Amino acid sequence: MTDAPASPTPDESDVQDVPAGVTARRGPLRAGQRVQIKDAKGRLNTITLLPGGEFHSYQGVLRHDDLIGGPEGVVVQNSSGHDYQVLRPLLNDFVLSMPRGATVVYPKDAGQIVQQADIFPGAVVVEAGVGSGALSMSLLRAVGDHGELHSYERRAEFAEVARGNVESFFGGEHPAWSIHLGDAQEEMLRVHAPHSVDRVVLDMLAPWECLDAVATVLAPGGVWLNYVATATQLSRVAEAIRESGTFTAVQANETLVRGWHLDGLAVRPDHRMVAHTGFLLTARRLATGEEALMLKKRSKVSEFKPEDVEAWQPSDESRWTPQALGERPVTDKKARKAAKEARLQARRARAAEQGVDPRTVGHDTDDQSR
Ligand SMILES: C[S@@+](CC[C@H](N)C(=O)[O-])C[C@H]1O[C@@H](n2cnc3c(N)ncnc32)[C@H](O)[C@@H]1O
User: Fold this and answer.
1) What is the C-alpha to C-alpha distance for residues 27 and 25, in angstroms, rounded to an integer?
2) Which intervals carry biased composition (Basic and acidic residues) (predicted)?
């Protein structure tokens, strides 16, 4: 690698009001930062750059020192002359390679959520649960440094995974972010004054349990977006919202993204794709006391018997378990392991921001105090 480090702006670490995360995304590669390295066979690895560090594969050894201080977008050779392409992970890549507790919102859905929930710079946004923090990162980017994102999570280990991931991605704490531990439906009522929140985004098993709380905190006209994995959850939350009479404009959709194979004349859709992730359902808060406008041309409501509804939406709450809805349970042990890894990556990213040698940053010295 011979290029001088290409920094498109002056040294941004000296500039006070650089938006959160910018220094981690441009300029020369720094020790403590994560990079993606891809070999000629397309194999991808994400590594944290450490002074004196080495990436070992059966093809030889790649020295981290050959990358630190240089630009991204380079092709470097390892000890045996094999080429590696080096890039910083984009948000999409970062989300797919970061430590996980709960299942993450995939990038294709995060983009739609930001758009359909109309998340704007400066907005006050409530999110629950925070899980691994994947969606939080997209929401934080959209609200910006002067917005507020309040993320609620009932499992402490997941909150730790999310905190580590978000700090690792932004290179430190994000000024717009607060995590609140506890059940969203109770905590958001404690934290927010009535009608003071612009947008609510829920990614959880039973969003209908939050209906009263969301109706209380959301401002008139505010958007409530639910991300759910199954059609039964979608139907239940839609009916609960309609029945409450406090929302309007209930809409649902899903997004399928089909990649394309581009190779000379062989230009066609990929053979495989992710067929299903989740459904998005949005609704708008009515002003208090207003009734939703009834369209004159209403679709004929289909007739159904109570047992049909019971089959589709059992009234016995104990049947709405994560397992029944196809969720894989995450053990405390697995969550703790992901939290530990996320915290380490966050410390290293912060060290990179501060110009501190990330090797001096070890595992879990201050874990319990945070
Ligand atoms: C699928 S995960 C969220 C993933 C997250 N959106 C992401 O992109 O990483 C669902 C999370 O909601 C949390 N949760 C479920 N019900 C909750 C509630 N009532 N209040 C707070 N958190 C809740 C769970 O503990 C879990 O961490």
Assistant:
1) 7
2) 329-344, 360-370
Axis-axis angle for helices 156-170, 134-143 (nearest 10) = 50
Domain that holds residue 196: 94-294+302-319
Read off the pLDDT band of 293 (50, 70, 90). Answer: confident
Q: Which of 89, 110, 127 is the last residue of a domain?
A: 89
CA 252, CA 234: separation in Å to the nearest integer?
8
Give the Å distance between the CA of 203 and the centre of ligand 1.
6
Q: DSSP states of 286-300 as a string?
A: PPTT--PPPPSSPPP
Q: What per-residue string of b and e applies to 340-364 under the rule 16 or more CB within 10 Å gives b?
A: bbbbbbbbbbbbbbeeeebeebeee
Residue with the smallest CA separation from ligand 1 atom 1 is 103
320-354 tens-digit pLDDT: 888 888 888 889 999 999 999 999 999 999 999 88
CA distance 237 to 211: 9
CA distance 54 to 31: 12
Closest-lying ligand 1 atom to the alpha carbon of residue 127: 6
Mutate to test the pocket of ligand 1, among 153, 201, 228 (most ligand atoms within 8 A of CB): 153
Cβ of 107 below 6 Å from ligand 1: no
What is the number of domains present in the chain?
Answer: 2
Domain boundary among 89, 111, 130: 89
**Does 125 sit in the ligand 1 pocket, CB within 6 Å?**
no
Spacing, Cα 110 to ligand 1 middle (Å): 15
